[in-house]
Design goal:
Elements (H helix, E strand, L loop, with lengths): L3 H19 L4 H14 L5 H4 L6 H18 L2 H12 L4 H16 L4 H19 L7 H13 L5 H12 L7 H26 L8 H11 L2 H4 E6 L8 E2 L12 E7 L2 E4 L6 E2 L4 E5 L2 H8 L3 E3 L3 H8 L4 E6 L10 H4 L1 H5 L2 E7 L2 E3 L13 E5 L2 H7 L5 E2 L15 H17 L4 H14 L5 H7 L2 H19 L2 H12 L5 H19 L4 H16 L3 H11 L11 H10 L3 H26 L3
Antiparallel strand pairs: 1-6, 1-7, 2-5, 3-4, 3-6, 8-11, 8-12, 9-10, 9-11
Length: 596
């Protein structure tokens, strides 16, 4: 018979899953609601419910994010990306191996999503220079980053599982605990991708650098979504600014250019006046254009394609970066046109382009935006960490490259402290973050902006629920059920069952929440069955990264969707085999290294 605390915890878990699955609430807000539910039901004391904000996990993640930003800001990671461009020439198989290995190597010392974002522009450039389709490289990059994260402590799930062990008075996991098994998975994953996986990658168009701009027109169907119109006398638009005309606010259409006699006004600002006889280049759906015609506008038949081709400014594709301030905001709220001088004409998401209401759509990680603007404005945007630009002509040239040696030394020193266990890892990470500021690699403003506060509140809010699962007795009860069900089974079967359960939960709620729900139960089951709880914690941590089957199961996968031109099913075709290989290799590694 379940006790009242156990029932309460089950209800809270159910409510949490429902909020994640069926509402549009942000995950960090849901985490705060979870914290309040755990505290108000008195499952844990109030001070314990709030302890997540000062936990070792949170301090470690803050330090990691700041050090990662220091490596980016000083140009260290851009140097790594340039090496990928330099050596990334050759056969398709060589490129796939190089891209996947680079992703795995970089993710050893960086947050996984940041590693993917740093390498993405370079891989796009390598694709264009080599003629190998991006669809052949983006999934290997995503999977390389993910398996690399299995071999290091610096992955959120790995950090969380170590903390859960410490919370139960068991020695936590260190830097070298993940490397043997994780390294085996990296090697096995690379072999799978070269021998089998690459043959299941979708075919895509191969582009040279000169073809890329033309392809953007075709990819976004610009010619089919552009219309040249003339403003008639008495038109609703006449003698109004672009903003006052409500052409975007009411119809969702974009004015991409204005022709006034022999004058061409490209990238018109919101305060640009429209006069009778002006000709406008409009971007948007045909049904919205039909509504615009009722405003006193005449369509110039056949003029849009010629007008678009004659524009002196070529479009460029930018992407929403991880931890971007643009996430959840619209382009109107970001004031991209006013602040950056750039005009967004289309948006790409999940294999589909959008031309209407572009500035009203809340942005997500991995969204690609087609913009037009002056070269100087685009170059200025390359210094904005909210966006990812293609490598090459518009690559950001950091002003702090002279500080790169400091950033490298600081990172190496922190890694050495972590590996040798000289001081507690959270203290080492915090010291490294402080050193980034003291050495001038980062300003304090950049320090604060480097921290993804969504992740901090997510972890701090969900940790009390993990504690409640243990304190209520629910973890012990579920562990007893598993012990009874697998009484005469091999310990490896227990690890396989827990890993599969973890993997399934990850597909729904992601790898940052899953360890907090599954972890306490898995550790308790290991203790009750007499197997090494540290090995179990490592298995759960690795299983939290088995996010290969769907694009939504990991932020890195989402980041690669647009550039790779993938469909939802493309990840399943490649990822099913990758999941099986990683799972079997993990079990083999646990048997060989941990004696399971």
């Amino acid at each position: 018979m379940l006790t009242t605390p156990e029932l309460t915890v089950i209800v809270i878990i159910g409510v949490t899953l429902a909020l994640i699955a069926f509402t549009r609430l942000r995950i960090d807000i849901i985490a705060l609601l979870v914290l309040l539910m755990v505290a108000l039901t008195r499952l844990v004391p109030a001070d314990a419910a709030l302890s997540g904000f000062s936990s070792a996990v949170v301090i470690t993640i803050i330090g990691l994010l700041v050090i990662t930003r220091g490596l980016e800001r000083t140009g260290v990671m851009q140097w790594v990306a340039r090496q990928l461009q330099t050596y990334g020439r050759g056969s398709e198989a060589k490129l796939i191996a190089l891209v996947m290995a680079a992703g795995a190597a970089v993710s050893l010392i960086m947050n996984n999503v940041a590693a993917g974002a740093v390498l993405l522009p370079a891989v796009l450039q390598v694709s264009r220079e080599s003629g190998v389709a991006t669809s052949k490289l983006m999934i290997p990059l995503a999977f390389g980053v993910t398996v690399g994260g299995m071999a290091t402590y610096f992955t959120t799930a790995n950090i969380l599982m170590s903390e859960l062990l410490i919370a139960q008075n068991i020695a936590g996991l260190g830097m070298l605990d993940f490397l043997p098994v994780g390294g085996m998975i990296v090697a096995a994953g690379l072999l799978y991708m070269l021998l089998i996986g690459r043959h299941t990658l979708p075919d895509g168009a191969t582009l040279t650098q000169s073809q890329h701009q033309v392809d953007l027109h075709d990819t976004y169907d610009l010619a089919e979504q552009m219309w040249q119109v003339r403003v008639l006398p008495g038109s609703r638009l006449a003698r109004q600014t672009v903003q006052e005309s409500d052409i975007n606010a009411e119809l969702g259409l974009t004015v991409a250019a204005v022709w006034r006699g022999r004058e061409t006004i490209t990238i018109p600002k919101s305060n640009q006046m429209i006069y009778p006889a002006d000709e406008l280049l409009i971007v948007g759906r045909e049904e919205r254009l039909q509504q615009l015609l009722a405003w006193g506008i005449k369509l110039i038949e056949g003029g849009a394609r010629a007008a678009a081709d004659e524009l002196p400014i070529e479009p460029i594709e930018i992407m929403i970066a991880p931890r971007s301030a643009a996430i959840g905001k619209t382009l109107s709220e970001m004031k991209l046109n006013r602040d950056s001088g750039l005009l967004a004409v289309a948006l790409w998401r999940d294999g589909q382009s959008y031309h209407t209401d572009v500035r009203k759509i809340p942005l997500q990680v991995g969204d690609a935006i087609l913009v037009v603007g002056q070269s100087a404005d685009i170059l200025n945007l390359s210094h904005n960490s909210n966006f990812i630009l293609p490598a090459g002509e518009y690559s950001a040239q950091t002003n702090e490259s002279r500080k790169a040696p400091f950033a490298v030394v600081i990172t190496a020193f922190v890694l050495a402290l972590a590996i040798l266990n000289v001081i507690p890892l959270p203290i080492a990470m915090l010291a490294g973050a402080a050193a980034m500021v003291i050495s001038g690699c980062l300003t304090m403003q950049q320090f604060y902006s480097a921290v993804d506060w969504r992740v901090i509140f997510l972890v701090a809010g969900m940790l009390p629920l993990s504690l409640a699962i243990t304190e209520s007795g629910l973890a012990e009860r579920v562990g007893s059920i598993l012990e009874f069900s697998l009484m005469n089974a091999s310990p490896l079967l227990l690890f396989a069952v827990i890993a599969l359960l973890t993997m399934l939960v990850v597909q729904v709620i992601g790898g940052q929440v899953t360890p907090l729900l599954v972890g306490p139960i898995a550790i308790k089951a290991a203790l009750q069955m007499g197997v090494d709880p540290r090995a179990m914690a490592l298995a759960v941590a690795i299983a939290c990264s088995l996010a290969f089957i769907t694009p939504i199961s990991h932020p890195v996968n989402i980041l690669m969707m647009g550039p790779g031109g993938y469909k939802f099913s493309d990840f399943s075709k490649v990822g099913a085999g990758m999941t099986l290989v990683a799972l079997l290799t993990m079990l083999l590694g646990l048997a060989l290294v941990w004696g399971v």
